[in-house]
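User: I'm writing a short report section on ligand binding and want a predicted complex to refer to. Could you take this sequence and 2-(butylsulfanyl)adenosine and write out the structure as tokens? A short remark afterwards would be nice.
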Amino acid sequence: MDKEQARKRIEVLTQEINQHNHNYYVLSSPVISDYDFDMLLEELILLEKEYPEFLLPDSPSQRVGGEITKEFNQVNHANPMLSLANTYSEEELRDFDKRVQKLLNDDYTYVCELKYDGVSISLIYENGLLARAVTRGDGVKGDDVTTNVKTIRSIPIRLKGDYPQNFEIRGEIFIPIDKFKAFNEERISAGEEPFANPRNSASGSLKMQDSAEVAKRPLDCFQYYLLGEKLPYDNHYDNLLKAKEWGFNIPPYLAKCKNINEVLEFIAEWDKNKEHLPFEIDGVVIKVNDYQQQHDLGATAKSPRWAIAYKFKAERVSTRLNSIAFQVGRTGAITPVANLEPVQLAGTIVKRASLHNADIIKNLDVRTGDIVFVEKGGEIIPKIVGVDKTQRKDETKEFSFIEKCPECQTTLIRKEGEAHHYCPNDKNCPPQIKGRLTHFISRNAMNIDSLGEGKIEILVDNGLVYNVADLYDLTYDRLLGLEKIIEATEDKKEKKLSFKEKTVTNILDGLKESLNTPFEKVLFALGIRFVGQTVAKKLANHYKSIENLQRVNFDELFLVDEVGERIADSVVTFFKDPLNIEIIRRLKQIGLKFKVENENLNISDKLAGKTIVASGRLENFSREEIKSAIEVNGGKPASSVSGKTDFLLAGENIGPNKLAKAKELNIPIISEKEFLEMIK
Ligand code: IVH
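Assistant: Sure. The structure tokens for the complex follow:
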């Protein structure tokens, strides 16, 4: 490819990928497979590396992040970011309407929208390009978080159509609930602390220094308010709809209301249906539609007089805090848990609530015996939102956080900048031992389902296993007859768990079968902190064997895609520990897989000189694997079909465009089976 061709290709790819991002993240209707998308992006990134002079300002490669911001620049807002007046009552809302009526003395229309529960952001567009993204800050000035915001795919970097040259649009950055749950699960399995709720997670993400990390967070954004001299219409509603044409993610949940009764209907409908939304909301925002009328109504120092937020009442009850217990996690993190006098809340009986960490306890100033307020908002776990101090007895003392691990009595530590206290006794603290073992056998790791948390507990309590290698030393005789009484709970009777013949055989069979688990899963199962499933896969594919991985140093690791400072540091530390080295030595001897097996790969020159485009989902290969399968057999993998393509390898769900192009150019289309034949 010559220089001019490269420039053109970069241009085409930039535009095409931006459109695919919009199709996927804003319109929710992708037209190509994820695989094909990744291939296009990869091609663009490679070309941009080779020809940095052609990198375009709206390049979608910015979505992947990579830039590090040590300190965010503070910038003044062009228009102060006011907040909205809040109300929880119909009466106050009617008062608001009466004030509007009186001040305007004319007809008016409201626009009702949902109140998205995230973090607000101001986006500045200049000549159709996202120039700056600034957090609310104190309303007058905020942090410039442009690099991080560019990783959010539903925020356009370049606009389409007849947009004004300069304007500002505001919106809310949030994390959809299902993505938040999956993200937290991934964090837990990588030994990280889960976030308390999507809102905190979104706001924490925006302030991260490494934009590549931000890119991995499932952030989304809705836009809901435009500001500018030359907006196309004289009212909020029409401009919002117009902004959608420019590529913005304007939420569909909005309605024009002629009077306050229609507003109340909108509120009632969403109060009832909010549980079905895929994201969290905490109310409804009501805005006067007409700009002239907004101007006439003006603003107080804090908030505009033309808008108000109606907040839904979160269901709240009060109950007694009986005690605060402390749980020790797999990584040694200590989580305080409130034991409550059981109370009915939003259809369930609540007995416990997480108190998260020492700072939260301190800020709430909760004390044992207090009457506390418990709420269940959109959040999954109920939370304590306050203390009824009027009911507090005089003699209670401020709660002091424990200093020793409740399980092994080791003095706790708290690293700078971390919210949690930790028990540093990772080798001998029972919940940490059990946590590591439970992680090892879990579904996405070694998948030994004949062992579960309860059985692991029995094995550890009976002194049969301390580490994951010990599991493979278990014998029939040692296991038979082991038992444990599971304590009776209110809803369940006392249960005795004992190992009978069938259980024991299943456990031993399960362990034997686990020897077939591929290397990437074994690596994940080892429980190296911050090495989740994705990173384990990356490392396995990159280094191919545990020996290679054990040998690398921090600097080399840091260069691997997906591996940041924290992960690199954790991997190096893990392999420095003699106990870990000994466990791996034993596991190797037992026969666990510690290298990548590519049965399908037959190193040859059977594809020499052939350019192959693989597209669609393949049964036997991941994206990385098919590329290397082509390469090790002498071929050249490519991402788009052109005159130079020799074969199109068509997987499941291959995009129609690629097929059509191949047919047009008379390029042979082969199946995965045919490909396997070719390299056999
Ligand atoms: S309009 C001047 N619309 O609620 C009016 N705000 O306290 C600008 N919010 O800071 C805000 N959903 O973060 C508006 N549909 C919506 C909103 C919304 C959520 C947030 C926003 C703002 C806060 C108001």
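A remark for your report: The first helix runs from residue 3 to 25. The pocket of 2-(butylsulfanyl)adenosine is lined by residues 82-84, 113, 115-116, 120, 170, 172, 224-225, 285, 304, 307, 309 (CB under 6 Å).
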